[in-house]
Amino acid sequence: MQDYHKILNTIHAGLSQKKDKGKVASYIPELSNVKDDNFGIYLNIIGADDFYVGQTNVKFSIQSISKVLALSKAFEIKGDDIWNRIDVELSIF
Predict the structure, then answer these.
(1) Neighbour tally for 27: CB within 10 Å
(2) In whole angstroms, what is the distance from residue 74 CA to residue 2 CA?
(3) Mean pLDDT across the chain, nearest whole number?
(4) Which residues make beta-bridge pairs with 43?
(5) 8 in a structural domain
(6) Residue 41 placed within a domain
């Protein structure tokens, strides 16, 4: 079995030291009150242990990541047929 605790600690330590972490989206009211140094990772393995590091007890708004959760549920319901209704647009930076 993988040493998830060690893996998460390594990821957390490496990312916590990065200087350019972006900025909190102050134009979104719910996010404008979030401290920019909040960072935690939580891994739940169904039927096994939970592994976590950092501020995993801090509540937060999921904002855009909710789209991934909604897509996951739609995929569970529709399977590969979901791609008949969903397309991808190229992002240009």
Answers:
(1) 7
(2) 30
(3) 85
(4) 51
(5) yes
(6) yes
Q: Which residues form the domain of 55? A: 4-84
Residue pLDDT, tens place only, 36-74: 888 899 999 888 889 999 999 988 888 778 888 898 999
Residue carrying the six token digits 């549920």 = 73
From CA 55, how far away is CA 81, in angstroms rounded? 38
Asked whether residue 66 is assigned to any structural domain, the reply reads yes
Q: Give the three-state DSSP class for 39.
A: coil
The answer to whether 4 touches 51, Cβ cutoff 8 Å, is yes
Place of tokens 């330590």: 13
Q: Positive or negative, the Cα torsion across 35, 36, 38, 43?
A: positive
- DSSP, collapsed to helix, strand or coil, labels residue 79 as helix
Distance CA 15, CA 39 (A): 9
Residue 92 lies in a domain: no
- The total of other beta-carbon atoms located within 10 Å of residue 51's CB is 19
Q: How many domains does the chain have?
A: 1
